UniProtKB/TrEMBL annotation:
Ranges of Polar residues composition bias in the record: 396-409
Gene Ontology MF, one: sterol binding
Protein's UniProt name: Oxysterol-binding protein
Subunit structure: Heterodimer with OSBPL9.
The species this protein was found in: Amphiprion ocellaris
Region (Disordered): 389-409
Family to which this protein belongs: Belongs to the OSBP family.
Reactions that this protein is recorded to catalyse: a 1,2-diacyl-sn-glycero-3-phospho-(1D-myo-inositol 4-phosphate)(out) + a 1,2-diacyl-sn-glycero-3-phospho-L-serine(in) = a 1,2-diacyl-sn-glycero-3-phospho-(1D-myo-inositol 4-phosphate)(in) + a 1,2-diacyl-sn-glycero-3-phospho-L-serine(out)
Annotated ranges, domain PH: 48-145
Presence of keyword Membrane: yes
Record-level GO BP terms: lipid transport
Role description: Plays a role in regulating ADIPOQ and FABP4 levels in differentiating adipocytes and is also involved in regulation of adipocyte triglyceride storage. Weakly binds 25-hydroxycholesterol. Interacts with OSBPL9 to function as lipid transfer proteins.
PANTHER family: OXYSTEROL-BINDING PROTEIN-RELATED (PTHR10972), OXYSTEROL-BINDING PROTEIN-RELATED PROTEIN 11 (PTHR10972:SF46)
Length: 656
């Protein structure tokens, strides 16, 4: 297939050979140049060519882009760079071997491209314009292809020499003192065979790495974070961690128990006790000590990169799973139950907005931005809350009336279950219900994170629906984005974005805006909300304040009500003891990572985490090989979402 392309008045031929997949670019009306990569004169040809010139090289987040003088050494198969052209006679500042490398034009802009060496090292480079980038990319690709093919040819030659050696030895005539069965000759044959096997394995690994990098350049880069390992952790007789190798030891759950889809658990309320887990994420020591590690990690990232595949260092983890964090958003179950007490559709919408706005503060364990554990597919979390019953619950506290006193009646029970229903993409489903009040909420969330320079942004993609069966109302809602700011100093959490709550039956809706702090001035954690009656377009309530501080509700009647989120009573959740939990329950699954983090033993926590994740990858490969689909336990796929398998709204006993 040949194409003719006109660039700056000159015709260039591009020939694509389908069988070999080679791209040849050469001019039709151009005289050869000196080979220097400049914007004025380039030489396009299908033969290898030494070129040099200035390119910008991305060093890291702190240093940024720097001009460096690059030299393509075709004979050696190296891309070398120097501080400037004058320092070229000196030793190169750095170099990348191009055999097996992947050269990828970036989709960031038309000037940037990357050179990914087989060793894992990467150069991120930027040319002055698109034409110069294309010149460098094409020359680098030709050199890379040549030296990659040369590796295969060398292997073929070595195999031929190995066969010649074996044939020479086996063709020796039987003579005294010399025989094909001579011990030294047998050792020579064995050594040659072992060497060839080793070379074959190395070449196979290089090919696999190259294919993986080519796939990664198409579907987004994958970064495996190299965390510290415990060299003796899996050895028998380890004195400090000897129980690792015993069936009764702390890792027995991780190693011996099959991590496959299991049957649903029947939770006995008598097994649950008030949660005594009170850790606050206030320790900044590890983050400050490991700042250089964070800098190195950041230097590997690019703006907008999807962090789903990036394995982050263990010391930035908080001591709970993401599934448990979702449960902690319901730490004010009294406000949740009170939604259905509203005497009118307007009041119930305002109550839901109040519950929604007050849920995020307690969901965060302290002000420090740390990352919860990424749930393993099939991981679950169960808990419940007891909510005291109150007389005259139908009165409207949203209009400023005092809270009625609790009674001695048996409390309401709110039950919660969460499950990680998907690994790629990472999707969690969670469901909560209060059967006695005939209300429940079902939510599915896909967490998608990306690198934003000095921040990390997390989009919570999905939707939730609150069902008030007593009133035959459904409230659909979305979730805000979260941001980890100042990740090099004192990381902190900020919410941002616009979310909506709507009830089709009543015609009421709410728009909540979480405002991120402007670059200069402005308040932190600011939020505003507006409740509207859509048929009349009338605003019935406005809210302003901070989602982790004071919120002011203003009504059309002129009345106002203030809610201080920090002073709201927190109801501790009820959970089973770890030993009574199933093997895939969050706290049991992550218990050794959590305990190691409490002891500030980052290496041990890293190893426990690695074993869990490796087990997940092994079983994922097993399912792929056996073509076995993953089967969830508590949530079923419905359209684009996930729904709890036994929701109240499908139970005729709880319908109106």
């Amino acid at each position: 297939l040949s194409l003719l392309v006109t660039m700056q008045g000159e015709t260039t031929a591009i020939r694509i050979t389908e069988n070999e997949g080679k791209l040849d670019v050469f001019p039709q009306n151009r005289t050869p140049s000196s080979g220097r990569a400049s914007a004025k004169s380039w030489q396009y040809s299908d033969h290898m060519e030494n070129i040099d010139g200035y390119l910008m090289k991305y060093t890291n987040l702190v240093t940024g882009w720097q001009y460096r003088f690059f030299v393509l050494n075709n004979e050696a198969g190296l891309l070398e760079y120097f501080v400037n052209e004058q320092s070229r006679p000196q030793k190169p500042r750095g170099m990348l071997p191009l055999a097996g490398a992947v050269i990828s034009p970036s989709d960031e802009d038309s000037h940037t491209f990357t050179v990914n060496a087989i060793s894992g090292e990467q150069y991120k480079l930027r040319a002055t314009d698109a034409k110069e980038r294309q010149h460098w990319v094409s020359r680098l690709q030709i050199c890379t292809q040549h030296h990659t093919e040369a590796m295969g040819k060398m292997m073929t030659q070595a195999q031929g020499q190995h066969r010649d050696l074996i044939q020479s030895i086996e063709g020796l005539p039987a003579a005294p003192g010399l025989s094909p069965l001579d011990q030294d000759l047998l050792m020579l044959k064995a050594t040659s065979m072992a060497t060839m096997n080793c070379l074959n394995e190395c070449l196979h690994i290089l090919h696999l790495q190259q294919m993986a990098r080519q796939r990664g350049s198409l579907g987004g880069p994958t970064i495996e974070w190299l965390e510290p390992k415990l060299p003796d952790i899996l050895k028998n007789g380890s004195s400090s961690l000897g129980s690792f190798t015993t069936g009764e030891g702390p890792l027995s759950d991780h190693i011996l128990l099959p991590f496959l889809s299991q049957e649903q658990e029947d939770i006995d309320a008598d097994d649950e006790a008030e949660d005594c887990f009170t850790d606050k994420e206030e320790d900044l020591g590890a983050v400050e000590e490991e700042r250089s590690v964070i800098l190195h990690l950041l230097s590997q990232l690019k703006l907008g990169m999807d962090l789903t595949r990036v394995v982050l260092p263990t010391f930035i983890l908080e001591k709970r799973s993401l599934l448990e964090m979702y449960a902690d958003f319901m730490s004010h179950p009294d406000l949740f139950v009170a939604i259905t007490d509203g005497s009118s559709p307007e009041d119930r919408m305002v109550r839901f907005v109040e519950y929604y706005l007050t849920s995020f503060h307690e969901g965060r364990k302290g002000a420090i931005a740390k990352k919860p554990y990424n749930p393993i597919i099939g991981e679950t979390f169960h808990c419940s809350w007891k909510v005291p019953k109150r007389p005259d619950a139908s009165k409207e506290p949203s209009q400023g009336s005092p809270e009625p006193a609790a009674t001695t009646q048996d409390p309401y029970q709110v039950r919660f279950v969460a499950e990680q229903v998907s690994h790629h993409p990472p999707v969690s489903g969670f469901y909560a219900e209060c059967q006695e009040r005939r209300m429940c909420v079902n939510t599915h969330v896909w967490t998608k994170s990306k690198f934003m320079g000095m921040s990390i942004g997390v989009s919570m993609i999905g939707e939730g629906c609150l069902y008030l069966l007593e009133h035959d109302e459904e409230y659909t809602f979305t979730l805000p984005c979260a941001y980890a700011r100042s990740i090099l100093t004192v990381p902190w959490v900020e919410l941002g974005g616009k979310v909506t709550i709507s009830c089709t039956k009543s015609g009421y809706s709410a728009v909540i805006t979480f405002q991120t702090k402007p670059f200069y001035g402005g308040k932190l954690h600011k939020v505003t909300a507006e409740v509207k009656h859509n048929p009349t377009n009338a605003v019935v309530c406005r809210v302003q304040g901070e989602w982790n501080g004071v919120l002011e509700f203003s009504y059309t009647s002129g009345e106002t009500r203030v809610v201080d989120v920090t002073k709201l009573p927190v109801t501790r959740k009820l959970v089973r003891l770890t030993e009574k939990q199933g093997p895939t329950e969050s706290r049991r699954l992550w218990q050794h990572v959590t305990e190691s983090l409490r002891q500030k033993d980052i290496e041990k926590a890293t190893e426990h985490k690695r074993i869990l994740e490796e087990r997940q990858r092994t079983e994922e490969r097993h399912r792929a090989e056996t073509e076995t689909a993953w089967r969830t336990r508590y949530f079923d796929r419905e359209g684009e979402g996930w729904v709890y398998h036994k929701p109240l709204w499908k139970n005729s006993a709880f319908k109106s």
